[in-house]
Amino acid sequence: MERLSTAVSLAGVELKNPVMTCSGTFGSGMEYGEFVDLNRLGAVVTKGVANVPWEGNPTPRITEVYGGILNAIGLQNPGLDLFCQRDIPFLKQYDTKIVVNVCGRTVRDYCEAVERLGEQPVDLLEINISCPNVKHGGIAFGQDPAAAEEITREIKKYAKQPVIVKLSPNVTDIAQMAQAVEAAGADAVSLINTITGMKIDIHRRRFALANKTGGMSGPAVKPIAVRMVYQVAQAVNIPVVGMGGIATAEDALEFILAGATAVAVGTANFYNPRATEEVAQGIEDYMRQYHVSDIRELIGAVESL
Which structural domain range is residue 290 located in? Predict the structure, then answer.
């Protein structure tokens, strides 16, 4: 059988394959342990964690829409103390890289969390500056290049692990945002986060979500995400992690051909808990079919007509 190399280097950290989980869709892997062999994944990206516990938004905070879901969870999380005590030891049992997603309301919040995580056995930090559901902090940092640059520069002063900055699609020019965080020292970028949307219950004449708006994810956002990943990959020299509507290996390969070094599976986990494993296997099958011995040959390999 043809020998394949699926390993990729993400900001100096080698992943056995490019398949990761999307923050907020996989917990820290505990909920999926009986369905998915975490050893098969390149990395597990944890749900967002802050320096202190967050309650999140009032319910209802998730609703189905055509081609995906809207969520307004509001980054509910148990805080770093419990996370370090419970989640990191669980993930350390597996042969997979650990990426901790960090959220905060102020620059100080982010820096404190990042500094504390510097003492933990985790491989990468993903900084969420783009969640559209948090009224303080996140949305401002993620939509203004100067603010994104400032917070990235501050975080890099405290970070011991490589920093991935997660970008918001709710901007005019996502390439400009990527260039801003690259200039501030980001080691990689990930995109896209959810697109702000709304649903109204016409029979009750009420918003479907208590928060009124939520972040849209799922298959309907994939063409937008592929376009943005391509734009960003052309604009920066740091690795790009692509996400947004990935449910199959074919979806993942679109992102890789567009320039993504790694990919993350999100909403698909909710209706197919084995989606990540299936994507990893499907990429290997594709490589055999097209006689590609090294996955790196595919990164950014799309050609014009």
Answer: 8-55+74-196+214-297
